[in-house]
């Protein structure tokens, strides 16, 4: 927003949109404004321009299958003004006037999820499959080890060869050569979107910007032999995952800025003050996830804009055009005449719509009294995401609905903690539930404020306890209707995939042997652990590495047909795997030969990882319990100069301490539970039941130092 000016300009609404389905067509003249083209999940492509602040339609297609991607193409080094959409397993091409010139039915058995176009080359990805076509003829094929989220190709005119890059869910970018994997580039989170740096891959044409589902942003150079990471920006502000990226000079300084759209509705502009890392210059919060972002000139000649399309189909523009003008006397800024008339026409339109809704509602109520009336259930779209956060070992459940949410009922058949979320303004109420005999451990209702379309919840699970979390979503539509969404809480739910582990740690080993296939043992691992691809891996064997996000312990799992080997520095992880895998094999009537090798040193090592966290939480709990008494003293005495410095600091930090304690309920109980499980599991592998000694252990935990705790474990 140039000179600190700019305001949201509202454009028309289309249907629900997927990621990367809105583009700006190149301007036809030097000063002309650009047309907007957007594809929605009703299968409709809408193209329009803006004249005098009003949208003017260019063309609109008939409804069809959901549009998963929309890209612009054309011959290399010419304006990219042909419109291509991926819908189902088909790619369609349209001219900028809306005339269809291509209908290419691919040989893909699954729906297209990602698409990139470069001249006559078409790159398509379904869940695990990549296909390259040239002039609609099959060229290359690749089967990925995990789900593909996005695809692009380095500019052929700069790198002189076709180099496709796949963004895969297992935290890697896979770089291909023909049908073969050239190499893998590790990135810090699951990459959700790729873009060429500066829109052209930078000077070398090899620079690719990626965004991850946990909100990180990075630049990596894809050379012919290896990846070179250039910069990486973490997500310190705990913002949403990145869905779209564009490069555009919105500040007018001759250098293209990086435009970023996130799934929590935050739009960001980064600029390159120095040649190295980008700096966040501007951000703006919208109420829905941003599916597509583009920079260009849409509303008025000479004024650039950032255009964003959101999940439910709203198109929003942030303009560099000044919307205020001075009154001439050097006094206050006033809205321009044009903006005032725009606001008043919007008000009139809203009043007209409200009247129309009331009339239709009355008509519906009258017709519903009739004996022949049939009430149809209105369909509505829900965009949901259930992911593990590494920072605080909790799961985020994000629910986004195309219309306002009335309430969400959350039910779980396993014990879980609901954590506080700052962004959540909904009122939560808990219902008492009987864990016996219905296995109902949680029943909570979130009542949303008017016009809330996005709700974020946080839960923390307990490893070893597995089942289902269900969310019943009821929007504010008539007649009342509800959708149920289910999320699996896995036995090792707090584990997250990682690229490598520390092999020098003391490890416990669990080995399974039996008459099982590679696909069977893979399905058991999928059942036990998050972030494992459901598709059985290619090849004869596979190794996955995991890290426990709560404790920092690790797990290595290697398996093939007839054999599985699991190594962890935490005995409890091995114990959970042994119990669950045995149960799964028994269900299939498969005999397992189970052996284990327990390393005594690993228990001491795990206790050393847990104890600092335990000490911190015990101290926090003690401080929080003192706050009320200290505040009472403060009121009685008038000042707190007579208090010891440590008590004075508790009073000074009281609000932060209470906030932290509230954000992490039951944290201490979880740590106590983990230490108790570790104690029981250590002796379970020795064939000894020590459950009678648990009360003594809990007494010891209160105020016990690390050496004392280790001594108790060994003396028992």
From TrEMBL:
TM stretches of this protein: none
Gene Ontology, cellular component aspect: axoneme; BBSome; ciliary basal body; membrane; neuron projection
Ranges of residues in domain BBS7 beta-propeller: 22-320
Coiled-coil region: 336-363
Keywords attached to this entry: Coiled coil
Lineage: superkingdom: Eukaryota
Protein name, entry field: BBS7 protein
Organism: Lophotis ruficrista
Phylogenetic placement of the source organism: Eukaryota, Metazoa, Chordata, Craniata, Vertebrata
Gene name per UniProt: Bbs7
């Amino acid at each position: 927003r140039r000179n600190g000016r700019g305001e949201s300009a509202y454009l028309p609404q289309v249907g629900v949109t997927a990621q990367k389905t809105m583009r700006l067509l190149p301007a036809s003249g030097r000063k002309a404004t650009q047309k907007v083209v957007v594809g929605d999940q009703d299968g409709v492509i809408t193209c329009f321009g803006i004249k005098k602040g009003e949208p003017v339609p260019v063309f609109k297609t008939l409804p069809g299958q959901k549009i998963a991607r929309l890209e612009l193409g054309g011959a290399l080094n010419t304006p990219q003004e042909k419109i291509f959409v991926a819908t189902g397993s088909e790619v369609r091409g349209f001219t900028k006037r809306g005339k269809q010139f291509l209908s290419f039915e691919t040989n893909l058995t699954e729906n297209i999820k990602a698409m990139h176009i470069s001249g006559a080359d078409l790159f398509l990805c379904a869940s695990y499959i990549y296909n390259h076509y040239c002039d609609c003829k099959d060229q290359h094929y690749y089967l990925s080890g995990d789900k593909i989220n996005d695809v692009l190709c380095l500019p052929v005119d700069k790198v002189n060869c076709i180099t496709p890059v796949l963004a895969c869910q297992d935290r890697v970018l896979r770089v291909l050569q023909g049908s073969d994997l050239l190499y893998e580039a590790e990135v810090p989170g699951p990459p959700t979107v790729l873009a060429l740096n500066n829109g052209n891959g930078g000077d070398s044409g090899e620079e690719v910007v990626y965004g991850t589902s946990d909100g990180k942003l990075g630049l990596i150079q894809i050379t012919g032999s290896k990846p070179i990471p250039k910069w990486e920006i973490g997500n310190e502000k705990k913002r949403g995952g990145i869905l779209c990226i564009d490069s555009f000079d919105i500040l007018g300084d001759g250098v293209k800025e990086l435009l970023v759209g996130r799934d929590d509705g935050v739009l960001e502009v980064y600029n390159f003050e120095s040649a190295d890392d980008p700096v966040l210059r501007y951000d703006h919060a919208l109420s829905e996830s941003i599916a597509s972002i583009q920079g260009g000139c849409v509303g008025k000649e000479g004024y650039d804009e950032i255009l964003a399309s959101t999940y439910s189909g709203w198109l929003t523009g942030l303009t560099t055009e000044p919307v205020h003008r001075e009154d001439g006397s050097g006094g206050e800024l006033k809205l321009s005449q044009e903006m005032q008339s725009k606001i008043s026409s919007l008000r009139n339109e809203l009043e007209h719509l409200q009247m129309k809704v009331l009339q239709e509602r009355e008509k519906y109520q009258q017709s519903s009294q009739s004996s022949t009336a049939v009430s149809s259930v209105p369909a509505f779209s829900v965009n949901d995401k259930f992911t593990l956060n590494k920072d605080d070992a909790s799961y985020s459940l994000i629910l986004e609905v195309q219309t306002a949410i009335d309430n969400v009922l959350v039910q779980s058949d396993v014990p879980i903690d609901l954590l506080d979320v700052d962004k959540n303004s909904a009122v939560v109420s808990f219902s008492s539930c009987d864990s016996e005999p219905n296995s109902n451990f949680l029943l909570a209702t979130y009542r949303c404020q008017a016009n809330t379309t996005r709700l974020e919840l946080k839960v923390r699970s307990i490893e070893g306890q597995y089942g289902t979390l269900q969310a019943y979503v009821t929007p504010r539509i008539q007649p009342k209707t509800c959708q149920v969404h289910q999320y699996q809480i896995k036995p090792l739910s707090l584990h997250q995939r990682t690229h490598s582990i520390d092999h020098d740690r003391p490890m416990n080993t669990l080995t399974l042997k039996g008459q099982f296939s590679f696909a069977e043992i893979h399905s058991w691992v999928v059942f036990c652990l998050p972030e494992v691809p459901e598709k059985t891996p290619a090849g004869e064997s596979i190794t996955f590495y995991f890290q426990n996000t709560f404790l920092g312990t690790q797990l290595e799992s290697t398996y093939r047909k007839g054999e599985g080997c699991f190594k962890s520095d935490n005995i409890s992880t091995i114990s959970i795997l042994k119990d669950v895998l045995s149960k799964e094999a028994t269900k299939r009537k498969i005999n397992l030969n189970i052996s284990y090798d327990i390393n005594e040193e690993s228990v001491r090592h795990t206790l050393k990882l847990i104890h600092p966290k335990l000490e911190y939480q015990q101290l926090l709990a003690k401080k929080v319990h003192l706050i009320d008494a200290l505040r009472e003293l403060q009121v009685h005495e008038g000042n707190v100069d007579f208090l010891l410095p440590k008590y004075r600091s508790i009073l000074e930090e009281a609000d932060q301490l209470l906030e932290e304690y509230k954000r992490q309920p039951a944290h201490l109980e979880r740590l106590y539970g983990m230490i108790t499980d570790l104690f029981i599991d250590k002796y379970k592998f020795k064939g000894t039941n020590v459950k009678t000694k648990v009360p003594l252990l809990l007494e010891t935990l209160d105020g016990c130092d690390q050496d004392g705790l280790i001594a108790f474990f060994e003396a028992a």
